Amino acid sequence: MTDLLIRTFIKNADDINDPLVRSRYGALSGGAGIVLNILLFVMKLVLGFFTASVAITADAFNNLSDAGSSVVMLVGFKLSAAPADKAHPFGHGRIEYISGFLISVAIMILGVEFIKTSWERIMEPAEVSISAVTLVILAASVILKLWMYAFNRKLGGRINSGAMKTAAADALSDAAATAAVLIGTVAGHYAGVPLDGYLGIAVAAFILFTGFNTARENVSSMIGAPPDGELVGHIREEAAAFPEILGIHDLVVHNYGPGHVMISFHAEVACDGDIIKLHEAIDALELRLREKYGAVATIHMDPIVTDDKYTSGKKAEAERLVSAIDERLTIHDFRVVRTAEYTRLVFDVLMPYGFKMTPGELETRIEAAVREADPACRARVHAEHSYI
Questions:
Q1: How far apart are CA 223 and CA 211, in angstroms?
Q2: pTM attached to this predicted model
Q3: Nearest residue to 19 (alpha-carbon basis) of 78, 73, 98
Q4: CA torsion through residues 159, 163, 169, 171, sign
Q5: In DSSP terms, which residues pair with 253 in a beta bridge?
Q6: Cα–Cα distance, 268 to 266 (Å, whole number)
Q7: Is 339:298 a contact under the CB 8 Å cutoff?
Q8: 3-state secondary structure of 238
Q9: pLDDT at 97
């Protein structure tokens, strides 16, 4: 069903890095959410009125909130597809994260209001009437919400959209909440126990939990979350496909929103290679990253010595000394500078996050270790954190 809707409503659906195509995905998800959630709202509101159930009424307004969230998503995708301009040279892709965050805030506000209403019902219980129509509508709502979960999850996974994944998570929590209302209403009715207020609290808890988690994810993306591990792996694979490139380091992925990614890294090449051919390989890699991943790449060329045994030996010794401090540490940009007084080893060290030493402390520690291992050597070390 989802594939049929994609083929019907989205032109060039496979070109997911095109902002206009992403906007069409957003319109499909948002439009479906608006129509289906308003339908559920009307049915549950009428049902809540006739059954006098605060839990069902709360669930109805939860669906109305979802319809509003779908409107925010639709507008967010439309705005994020706007082309870059003088004020925003990197495009407007992060609007998608903002829309996802606004959806999450709306969800949490609704959850707080439902807790208040449900608590009042607990303090002043009221009889809830049920019928076959009640059970059918609630059961159908659960099934429809499960479909919406699968629908948004597939769309969100296809274009890697945080807003759609938020909508999918919300739909799943809605299905669980409605199922709890259905089961609890039946059980409370036949057991003669006033569970309506407690069921309302349960619905509100689902809503708050979903809103908090999705808000945290969207805020993380806006602040600057680390790049997706799969994308990092693809970048390394693409670089390894060029024999002229011996390795890469200092990889940074700047995310300005889905479909608006900039990549920079250093590519190691043989210092005695043909500079023209090496430059052509770098250009070809930049083009490939743009075509396959829609990313703008800037690659710095780092010449390294590949056929000097003394340099190779000193690099191996430096790696051993650094690894002795912490096995997670790695080095790059290694070179040897010989002077009349001593041999200087110059290299960078990559620190993992959570490492206890400061960069300055680590540099001092390594420089002392190099001098102790070989009094004829000195080291100039630059320690830095990884951006991936």
A1: 18
A2: 0.64
A3: 78
A4: negative
A5: 263
A6: 6
A7: no
A8: helix
A9: 80
